[in-house]
Amino acid sequence: MRDYIGAIDQGTTSSRFIIFDRTGRIVSSAQKEHEQIFPRPGWVEHDPIEIRRRVEEVVFEAMQAKDLRPSDLAAIGITNQRETTLVWSKSTGKPVYNAIVWQDTRVAETVAEFASQGGQDCYRPKTGLPLSTYFSGLKIRWILNEVPGARKAAENGDLLFGNIDTYVIWNLTGGIKGGVHVTDATNASRTQLMNLESLDWDEEILRDFDIPRVILPRIASSAEIYGYAALDAVRGVPIAGDLGDQQAALFGQACFKPGEAKNTYGTGCFMLMNTGEKRVPSTCGLLTTVGYKIGNKPAVFPIMPRFP
Q1: CA dist 100 to 45, 125, 191, Å?
Q2: Is the pLDDT of residue 306 over 70?
Q3: Closest CA to 240 of 218, 251, 224
Q4: What is the three-class DSSP state of 21?
């Protein structure tokens, strides 16, 4: 009997694995911090290899603490720090650069350049987001432009992009040995590359940012089986849930009806309000993003403050 569900929470300062029983009670958990890297003022990075190891370690420790086997778990879900940007080699699994964290402001000049050409909100009708250092798209552009050989490798299809959810899923499902390259609509909506109408990568924005589509993951729903774990401690367990941390909190707090909202207090303070299946353009500086998408059902949208 598969009596338990596992949840990986890969956050800004730590990785955690929690195992729940059928009543939602925590039966085991493990947590480990990872290093915060500050190469220069305004730059914030994480070591992706350290994050991968920490995830593997907490999964092993939580399973071992209660002597659980993979057959005890029905599925594993993932929630993650959003917007933190990673590009790595498809053939070796090695990152071409450290993960650029959501807090990082190194692309400020690029943001100003694009804003001077089309205005701060030039991509808001498609993405729900203003130009900002916050989102992943311009961070990808920075890596491809600044890391020697990265752009050519990307254009040749040798590199993969992902936010942390994508990187964790790819490694959990085998990495260079068949790892699944996927993200969900909530994480994709925070890249500033996804069109909220189609829930697919927007070709015009990709051209503007000079990002090859071949490096981008498949955009899936927030609840489906993406693949199966290859890590010994949970080998064969379906990886079946993926939501960015704030959207996961909205869903986890059961804000399923339009008008319901949650506020969370962590590395930052974040408020999201469910607006249902209808996208609500704000006239007060709020952001429109994807709240969750369950299987083949329509996406549900929240709005949130512009500067969380």
Answers
A1: 5, 26, 13
A2: no
A3: 224
A4: coil
